[in-house]
Prior knowledge:
The protein has helices spanning 21-34, 51-54, 64-68, 102-106, 126-134, 146-161, 183-190, 203-209, 214-217, 222-234, 244-252, 258-268; strands at residues 9-13, 39-43, 79-80, 86-88, 115-119, 137-142, 165-174, 194-199. The chain is an alpha/beta fold and 269 residues long. The chain has a single domain, classed as Rossmann fold.
Amino acid sequence: MSMNNYKKVIGIISLKGGVGKTSSVANLGAALAEFGKKVLVVDANFSAPNLGLHLGLPNPEITLHDVLLNRANINEAIYEHGSGFHLIPGAYISKKINPFGLKEKIRHLKDYYDMILIDSSPNLNDEMLSAMMASDMLLVVTSPDYPTLSATLRAVRLAKQKKTQISGLILNRVRNKRFELSIQDIEEAAEVPVISVLPEDIKVPESIANTTPVTLHKPKSASAVEYKKLAASLIGEKYEDPRLWPRIKSIFKKDVPKENINRLLMGEN
């Protein structure tokens, strides 16, 4: 896939806190950088920004809030993470801003980056709408339970109303228990394909405590591998699971996991 064919600005959304939206942004950013892409992650959760904390930037001098208040140029709010991607953090002591300036402020950055990831607010408000409007496509983070699915359906409906393409669902914190909703249940309800299934993985909160994406903290963990598979599909590249046992198991599996097929189709499109 050529550099000009895939979507440049991807909004990561959810309408329920605690499902792993911010950690997904951080890990996809790190994974895309591993593929050699120039990546920028943007904290557009203006009321409760957390992305900088996830990435070891607890006290940024200049933030996206300063940019939207016209106190700073956006280039001054860009910080480099140790793994090679860039970050625009938000202000932890929130200041009232107009979130709808986001799209215009990041417009010229599309010329400098291969991919821009936007972390949105988990609330149905102007902050989420601004992230949707600034994005070329959306990924929705959900988990396999009814309350989260209900919130996910609201996010999907809103995105369709705003005519922003939803490319897929990231299904997070999967325990493979009978009480969980199946991929088929979730896809039929949302009418959006599941493109990634992330297992419940203790390495993820451990990596957050270490302010390092799990893709770097434990690169062969189940979650890290799944994030890398998703990152590869977003840019039309292939990624082979480096772990021996999953490769052996895949040889004897009769059925290809549904999310693998969906990722392949997304990459082709």
